[in-house]
Amino acid sequence: MTRTSAARLADEELMVLVQDGDSEAVEVLYERHGGPAYSLAHRIMGERQAAEDVTQEAFLSVWRTSASYDAARGSVRSWLLQIVRNRAIDALRRSSVRGGRLDYDDDGLLEVQEAPEQTEAEVSRRERAAHVRGALKDLPHDQAQVLALAYYAGFTHSEISELLGMPLGTVKGRMRLGLQKVRANLGELIA
Amino acid sequence: MTVTEHMPWEDERAAYLLDALDERERTEFETHLAGCDRCRAELRWLQPAVDVLPASVEQIEPPAELRNRILGAIEADAGPAKASRARPTKPPFWSRVSSRAALTGVAAVVALAVGIAGGYALRGDSDSSQTIATTVPVEPTAPSIRAAANIVRHDDTYTLDVSHMPDLRPGDVYQVWMRNGKQLQPSILFVPSRDGTAKLVLPAQTGAADEMLVTREPSGGSQEPTSAPLVSATLQ
Lengths: 191, 236
Prior knowledge:
The complex is a heterodimer of chains A (191) and B (236). Chain A is mainly alpha-helical and 191 residues long. Chain A has nine helices and no strands. In chain A, helix 2 packs across helix 3, helix 6 crosses helix 9 and helix 8 packs across helix 9. The longest helix of chain A is centred in the first third of the chain and has 23 residues. By secondary structure, chain B is an alpha+beta fold. Chain B has two domains: 53 residues, Arc Repressor Mutant, subunit A (Orthogonal Bundle), CATH 1.10.10; 125 residues, Immunoglobulin-like (Sandwich). Chain B contains six helices and ten strands, in the order αααααβαβββββββββ. The chains are: A mainly alpha (191), B alpha+beta (236).
């Protein structure tokens, strides 16, 4: 299938082509989601080269493990970004970078910039992103902090407990309350 | 399970979705999850909150050359795959078996006590076409875990059937390892089907190995295991 034809297909349809070994379909997926994937990798890794490596690994994972994608469990975009997150956290855990982030204070979680957007789909995503940021801004700082330490820095709750010098039960509770609050605030957006 | 008995699991759900449990905690929670409708329903409700977290990060334009780098790597990777599809009569060295990792809700280190040496002895030399199938007894680490494996030898080809494999993280694969003495060699990769099963053609080196192990690894596999074995089989 040509890239022009593939570009008309939904992500889930593209995944069927990827499973059949159609590399043009991966190219279309990169055009749609390469930016968010790279942005997430950059957010976690903190520098360009490592973010590029992680993004490349993630798209290779999509290519090689496309059979493991299950539409019933979420969108292609969510699946891809979860792969990016996993690859990035794996890379962090292999490196010593996390040791330098003991004073991690994730202002970046709450203060983000808008990127130039072009398509209607991207406008919709920007609105969605604004909604997500709104939901996150409503979180108490201590809850946002533990979510960020877990999601963006890959710390376990035991490690967060040690880093912040607070009881494990407190960390677990803040994680639960924070995530529940984000979910509740998103409400109809993801219903 | 009473509300009081269930309370210790309430705080584990968010940590599980955020991948903030260590390996042992994750295994324990997944074992509980397999029999808990309440936790599964709560996870389904919470999951979108994790899915939207990437939308909050600053959007950065990737370098233009990254696109070509990624597509070049995929094209290079596609070459061998296309070649193997062109030779359907020859079993592939490794198989990406069927589709989709299953949400079995279980994960545990499973030890497979394999007596395949005896199975091979039954084969003898008189009938090389005879199939000797050895059902592998499974010793799960938790009562709720059910795992099974079956190793079959056809002439010089070894086939491994596994079922009830634990869920994989998105983008991860299972990797088979062969231990020969003190040497641990990386072997084939696989992704289980949706029901947690996989059927693999094992490499010829299997016959000489002392032990076979399976670990979770990033896609593309690893040169050394990066996680604890989920399955191990004593071969000789």
